[in-house]
Amino acid sequence: MTIEPNYPRLRVDALTWADVDPDRHPFDPDAVLDVVRAAAPAGGVPAPFRYDSARGFDHVADQARWDWQRAMTVALVEHYGVWACGWLAEMAGLTADGAMVLRWSGARDSITTPEETLDAVAGALLDWRIFLEDLAELFTRHLPLPAEPRAASVAWEATVASLVATVAARSGADEHWYPVCALALKWFLAVAEVPGEDHDALVDAAIGGRFWSFVSPLGAEVADAAESLAAMLTGVTAPPDDVWPDTWPQDWPSWRSTELPAAARAPRVTSPAVPDSLEAWRQVRQAARWEHEVEHVAGPVCTARDGIAEHLARRKYDAGRALAGLELARADAAEGGPLTFARLETWQREVLAVAAAPFRTTSAWARAGQERYAYRDELPEVFEACLAEATDPAVPLPSRAARVYLDVLHFHPFADGNARSAALALYFVLAREEVVLDRAASLLMTRWPASDPRGAEGLARFVALLIKQTRRSQGIRAQPGPR
């Protein structure tokens, strides 16, 4: 098949089990490297990333690397099917001597010599395929599940624990492990023919903020997630005196382990109810006095400095992509027109180097599970309406810029990169009226809680102050805007 680079299904989180089931998709592991070499994008492998302090960051060369990665994904999917886009999921594999190694961790870090780069692509695809085959074997081993509720509950707990342990062990608990873990659980729900279509909500409720990227799950956390999902599916809750053998990998303890003395057992993890930060923000948003907190401001207000661009350029890992997204936002601001989700998504695809950045379809978590942004079916429509208000001239510009910044943070529309998206939305609203802050780090590095109305109004005043300071640096007197 022939597909476009922005084909929406070129995303791991969009894959169904039918898309990836190894039994449905023939694969010859011995031919992978030959396929990769034949399918590699024309023009050759781009030059590897090398930072030159004298010349600075080469954005054009960096973009070429990410474009090559996208083109490589398209080529693999055209040859193998959509399951092959998972080569970017960062599932590690075993070397000949049994060591676990990650073959691909993004275009900037993994592109080296042409031969080594193509070897890495082939290795990453092979590791992803082996991971899928491991899942298929695990599904077969645990199915069919027993019908009797108590036996089914025990079986569900064992299955969920095995799935989580498998993903965590293969990923090293890196950036992608938690999303792939949630996806694998949803795949099993589908294969087990759990009725209903709301598998996302089931997995979200079971995990409940217990897991997050870059943090290895504790055995007690895995046990509680497994028990939670089993209870939702069977209606059976394990009695307090129920115990398990200590079978967790990597010596993880279970809170119900029989192999540890009682005093040494890990305490049971109880996930407290986490308030909905998005609902809190929507109430604050409605109550805040946006029209009255600050005065109207009119551009042009700018200096030779661009504070938001400077802040994004300081990012350690993905400054080039963030600045490329800013360039798109700057061009859209010059063109004019309203702020829309379509524009946000276009910028976000550049920021994250992904083929699509759709609105999330499940609840989101932040700050290590301390903040929850619940999902409802009407959220995309509500968010679009909020974005439209960002260019309403009846509200002073500083208030509109502050409000849209908080909208993106607390609606949390994307799976990743929402803080960067909020910065770009703020930039667009200001630049559209010829205002470019010469300093912005203090704004972008400050946490703005969802439930604090004084903080929301204070942010509007802070944006107004930053505009005033930029104008002072510009050396011109304030120009009154409309009343």
Please supply descriptive tags for the structure shown above:
483 residues, mainly alpha, Fic-like fold, two-stranded antiparallel ribbon, two-stranded antiparallel sheet, 4 strands
The second-level CATH architecture of the largest domain is Orthogonal Bundle
- The low-pLDDT segments are 241-272, 476-483
DSSP summary: helix tally: 18
How would you spell out the order of helices and strands? HHHEEHHHHHHHHHHEEHHHHH
How many domain modules?
Answer: 3
Mind summarizing the main beta sheet?
2 strands, antiparallel
Shape: globular
The pLDDT mean sits at 81
So, the CATH homologous superfamily of the largest domain?
Fido-like domain
| Helix/strand/pairing category | mainly alpha
Could you name the CATH topology of the largest domain?
A: Fic-like fold
Protein name: Fic family protein
Domain Fido: 339-468
